[in-house]
């Protein structure tokens, strides 16, 4: 698997434990989505999280599966297009947070699919 934009290291747990169990297939899909957005970066603000870190930051167990990430979508990027790209490429869940700049995307099995605004 070769990635054009993302590096696996960008998905390492943010607590300093050094663990990174992000699913490479998930990252490959994010890389393809990134490719549809020309020169606009997608910045990983949270990728894999160890269960301890996820609990500490108030997560709901999605990030420890390795199939979830929080991304900063560049200013000027059309969010609707971004969501369309996610769904087209097999990422069924996008969560947008009111008043926060990042979006959460995941493909965790048995979670509701769609766009959610929290
Ligand atoms: Zn950790």
From TrEMBL:
Residues 6-106 form the Peptidase M15A C-terminal domain. Pfam families: Peptidase_M15_3. This is Peptidase M15A C-terminal domain-containing protein. It comes from hydrothermal vent metagenome.
